[in-house]
Amino acid sequence: MRLSKLFTKTLREAPADEASKNAQFLIRGGFISKVMAGVYEYMPLGWRVLDKINNIIREEMNAVGGQELFMSVFQNKDIWSATERWDGAKEVMYQFKDSSGKELGLGFTHEEPLTAAAQHFISSYKDLPKAVYQIQTKFRREERAKSGLLRGREFLMKDLYSFHADQEDLDRYYEEVAVAYDKIFKRVGVKALRTSASGGLFSKYSDEFQVLADVGEDLIYVCSECGYAENKEIHAEGGSKCPKCGHGFTEEKSIEVGNIFKLGTKFSSALGLDFTDEAGAKKPVIMASYGIGPGRLMATAVEVSNDERGIIWPETIAPYRVHLVLLDEQGARSKEQEVANKIYEDLSKKGIDVLYDDRQDKTAGEKFADADLLGCPVRLVVSKRTLEKDQVEIKMRNKKEVAFASLKDLLSQLP
Amino acid sequence: MRLSKLFTKTLREAPADEASKNAQFLIRGGFISKVMAGVYEYMPLGWRVLDKINNIIREEMNAVGGQELFMSVFQNKDIWSATERWDGAKEVMYQFKDSSGKELGLGFTHEEPLTAAAQHFISSYKDLPKAVYQIQTKFRREERAKSGLLRGREFLMKDLYSFHADQEDLDRYYEEVAVAYDKIFKRVGVKALRTSASGGLFSKYSDEFQVLADVGEDLIYVCSECGYAENKEIHAEGGSKCPKCGHGFTEEKSIEVGNIFKLGTKFSSALGLDFTDEAGAKKPVIMASYGIGPGRLMATAVEVSNDERGIIWPETIAPYRVHLVLLDEQGARSKEQEVANKIYEDLSKKGIDVLYDDRQDKTAGEKFADADLLGCPVRLVVSKRTLEKDQVEIKMRNKKEVAFASLKDLLSQLP
Known about the structure:
Chains A, B: It is an enzyme of class 6 (ligase). Chains A, B: Residues 34-314 form the Aminoacyl-transfer RNA synthetases class-II family profile domain. 2 copies of one chain form a homodimer. Chain A has helices at residues 21-28, 44-63, 77-82, 86-89, 111-118, 167-188, 232-237, 266-271, 294-304, 335-349, 364-374, 384-388, 410-413; strands at residues 32-36, 39-42, 67-68, 74-76, 95-97, 103-106, 130-139, 154-164, 192-197, 206-212, 218-223, 229-231, 249-264, 274-276, 282-284, 286-292, 306-307, 310-311, 322-326, 354-357, 378-382, 391-396, 402-406. Chain A is of the alpha+beta class and 415 residues long. Chain A folds into 2 domains: 21-307, 2-Layer Sandwich (BirA Bifunctional Protein, domain 2); 320-413, Anticodon-binding domain (Rossmann fold), CATH 3.40.50.800. In chain A, strands 9-10-13-11-12 form a 5-stranded mixed β-barrel. Chain A has a 5-stranded mixed sheet with strand order 20-19-21-22-23, sandwiched between helices. In chain A, strands 4-6-5 form a 3-stranded antiparallel sheet. In chain A, helix 1 (21-28) crosses helix 9 and helix 2 runs antiparallel to helix 6. The first copy, chain A, is elongated, with a radius of gyration of 25 Å. The relative contact order of chain A is 0.13. At the A-B interface, strand 1, strand 2, helix 2, strand 3 and strand 4 of A face strand 1, strand 2, helix 2, strand 3 and strand 4 of B.
């Protein structure tokens, strides 16, 4: 993509009411645009990052047998009344009446409708286990939405749901998904700690995946010896010593990027999702649910990987791998432009993502500042000075050193 | 995908209140599931079809320079008031107050928020032209939602918006997108007629893309000589003769699968999206918008391509290219199963989509009925009878004849 053609421009300032670093950098870089408190639009650069995150999530969900589907935003009051959650959900769920007077909610989670849909398809032990997931926009009433993409009123969510015949199978799959979650966070480039939490409906515990960060809204307790982590609620119930090895805890602030829950039979019992076991007995299906917020994950990557000049994207989710800067004092048809154009075309043909700063009306200082703000991993510079030696300057966004590659060997020397 | 593992099953009956063929076949096939009138969930098979349609659309939108982004569902009353559309939109827009008393709408189109966002990025003729698009869930009040995916209260929409410095550039790009639309509909496998329509805000005319179908809600007039088509409103204004060649019209029912509008400066003037031209004068940006409903397109493909037994998917959007049927009288570990397993693995390795009916508890009749209902283009059958001659039976969903290929040459003989 040529910067001269890109829909967005970098901005000098983010809105005054944006305190969080992720919103500041993402808005200034033109990755996102603010609609209202807690509601953002993904501009083309931001959508590229999100798409890469979503595809990493898809690959790992498919690898554990998850089948992708796409539920509706509108949800029926009836099924939420059946699980006795409609009234309790009022605080977080946008609920309203349609023109016929029927009450609807905007989905913030999909246990009820998916359990209802599964009744068409699950009736025997032979139909189990099953796992389905979606990546979808969800809605949540948030009184104080002030953390950029970390806490929104409208946000993307990956939610996986699994269906099992017995607890042993649920436990096995739950651990399989926990491993897939570890892989996702590693691939996205953030270090997430599996953290014991309360809130499971079936077993006493659930698990959260927490990324240590100054701006985190959560408090977790990490054992300095064995790495075991637990959240505030679990910590309040337990002692001051790690239950695994007896050592002490360190209190840390963190951002929750994922969570996994054993739901047991709460939803299947309430909505009548039964199956017939091998002996012919009717039993409620055992369920679990597993969430990741792709937008929150993007924001977390920004919060934990930046410097005063801008974002430092992990390579796997960078909008472009290479940011190619043309410094072109003579304007159009210069040798520099000719070489930079050729590099842009050659790398693009090789399937390498390149953001090409071909703008004619920007100074070298402005171009370097934008490259640092946008945060692509590799910066290439083509200028009169580099061409005197038939070279291209190479700098990694996360390093200080500058190196040079000969024009001929650029592709093989590209980090 | 093995049918024994697929989340969904085919159903004997669709809900009694579903009159449309698309809803009947898509629900019975397990492609979609009904939540309430006009609201459907895409189950894994349906999501695969939709994903293929979306990707065809993406390729053609990218080819005309469209940059993908993702706007928000929540929209501000303020900007809709600025264009004087808030009150008029009440009939089609879900509008409600959030907990702070602020009025919000659920987006059914995105001219206002996109024009507002573009103000950050467009200020000079050098920033033009630009084109951006999204594929996103939209919402629309529909009193009588009874046509399956053809008319929903919640539905996917691809909306492209373009920004221009002058009308000449707008006209050029508008025609470029019209050609891209033709390509999309051809690739998806439906025959769409570009149809003159009223409703343009800038020029007098807009264009609709209409697919002839008995169940269409629209009436269009097609010249039997030159193929020129116009909609009801244009026809009422014009004469009974084709304006291009003077011949008569045939009245046809049709489904609108896309539309393109020249918006002119309505939105840019109201919301202050100006640019400075080469002479230094300030002017409002000229805009156009271009819509396609991917879900409606999926439904249209079903409406125009089916028989009494089920769907006949165009190859480009079929959930799977091959439906492999194992007829296995001896049960597990038979020669038939061994051969079918190997075909499934071999074709999958070659990157061919295969839906493999490996179910043990279904009769041949049930398996053939499901293959016809699901509508994949190529049906392969492995049975005791075919293996006696080391063959596989091949039948195309859209033909009656049955052919045979030797096991060795299956891949090269696959249609």
